[in-house]
Specification:
417 residues, alpha/beta, 2-enoyl-CoA Hydratase, Chain A, domain 1, OB fold (Dihydrolipoamide Acetyltransferase, E2P), six-stranded parallel sheet, 15 helices, elongated
């Protein structure tokens, strides 16, 4: 239905998409869909506004391949001011038919990093680096851009601002904003496939294509902080359900969160030692509730949780690691909850029993008959009991239970010292 709507109203329009955040399967799906919509409806061009710290190599290659084979001009615009096209973003910018940047933006630092959590030796690093250099230089030749700087960006993590990028031939133009970009694109000649196309963007309607709910959800799941929280909710939800069968809610929520967390782990560079430590911390916390360890199990759980959180996502890039703030917040919340449960358990151990023989001791009742060495009756705890006393107690007086022998209470006057 949405595609049909666009087919009626997007002919010769300028299609605008926002590629913001880590380059991931969600970014790839979104970009490919936008280009497909533009092609189906004969759009004047596609403008991809990009601000990215980098991302997954596979998703980046899917995007660049789609741009290279697009039948409509694709403009990649690093914007707004303060945005960047780092790592994978450099390749996407180089693949575009027109590369533009806003003032105050930068491009560069395309040196490959380990994205899958595995350690790379020097030979593997050299292979990956050479592959990235060859790929970026191929994109540079395809679009007539600076090959030398492309290699420097990969091998030396070179990065430049918008003005320098224009001088070096890394980009084609600088535009203040979207309107300025559209005005500067009008009349520009670009090669799309084997044909030369003249852009006609002046006066064209601008249509923005946003992410679908599915794409937004997938993008959210690539955030390591979100993945970390989902993983913990899943693990602890299932543990509480197993400890208290029939509660339903913790099991349902925990199962959903755990599945979503595993999907995130499939995308992010997970370290399974960190995952094992987090699971161990949950086991230790549960054991602390049932085993008297003087707090040692709880302390061990906190330590395991902290170390497991720190090494859960093993990557050289900050945006693929859990932030310190989130880790500390989670540790404080989990530790506080466990301490709260332990406090309730300790209080319960020292609390006076409310049932059985011990529960009757100290209870105050009323004599329903005269009581002495011969049994009388008292009303205690909502029941009538036979009772004896070393002191004579008259009917109607308050009594205190001092002992229980079979079904007979031993009492004394309530006002006795």
């Amino acid at each position: 239905m949405f595609a049909l709507f666009l087919s009626l109203f997007c002919v010769n329009d300028v299609i605008v998409a926002d590629l913001d955040g880590v380059i991931s399967p969600a970014s790839s799906s979104y970009t490919l869909r936008v280009i497909g919509i533009a092609e189906e409806n004969g759009a004047a061009c596609v403008i991809i506004k990009m601000d990215t710290p980098g991302g997954l190599d596979l998703s980046m290659r899917e995007i660049t391949k789609r741009i290279l084979n697009a039948s409509v001009p694709v403009v990649v615009y690093v914007a707004p001011r303060g945005a960047r096209a780092a790592s994978a973003g450099v390749f996407i910018l180089y693949a575009s038919h027109v590369a533009a940047m806003a003032p105050g933006t930068n491009v560069g630092a395309a040196h490959p990093v380990s994205m899958g959590g595995e350690k790379m030796d020097s030979v593997m690093i050299e292979k990956v680096t050479n592959d990235a250099v060859a790929y970026l230089k191929a994109l540079a030749r395809e679009r007539g851009r600076n090959e030398k700087w492309a290699e420097q960006s990969v091998r030396e993590s070179a990065s430049v601002d918008a003005e320098t990028a224009l001088k070096l031939g890394v980009t084609d133009l600088i535009a203040e904003d979207d309107n300025d970009l559209i005005a500067r694109l009008d009349g520009r000649k670009v090669r799309v496939g084997s044909a030369e196309v003249v852009l006609t963007t002046a006066g064209r309607p601008v249509r923005e294509v946003t992410m679908t709910l599915r794409e937004r959800l997938l993008l959210l799941l690539t955030n390591p902080n979100i993945a970390y929280v989902l993983l913990l909710l899943g693990i602890y939800g299932l543990f509480f359900e197993l400890q208290n069968p029939g509660m339903i809610f913790p099991g349902v929520v925990g199962g959903i969160c755990l599945i979503l967390g595993f999907y995130s782990l499939h995308i992010l560079p997970v370290n399974y030692a960190g995952l094992a430590l987090i699971i161990l911390s949950a086991v230790l916390f549960i054991l602390e509730i049932y085993v008297t360890s003087q707090g040692l199990l709880a302390i061990g759980g906190i330590v395991a949780l902290i170390f497991g959180s720190l090494i859960l996502f093993e990557s050289d890039v900050p945006y693929l690691r859990v932030s310190w703030e989130v880790i500390m917040l989670v540790v404080i919340v989990v530790a506080g909850f466990v301490i709260f449960l332990l406090t309730l358990g300790v209080r319960a151990q020292f609390k006076k029993r409310a049932t059985g023989r011990e529960g009757m001791l100290g209870e105050i009742g009323t004599a329903r008959s005269d009581i002495g060495t011969e049994a009388g009756t008292v009303f205690v705890h909502g029941e009538l009991w036979n009772a004896v006393s070393a002191q004579k107690i008259e009917k109607g007086k308050k009594v205190r239970v001092t002992g229980v022998e079979h079904m007979t209470l031993t009492v004394e006057p309530a006002d006795a010292g």
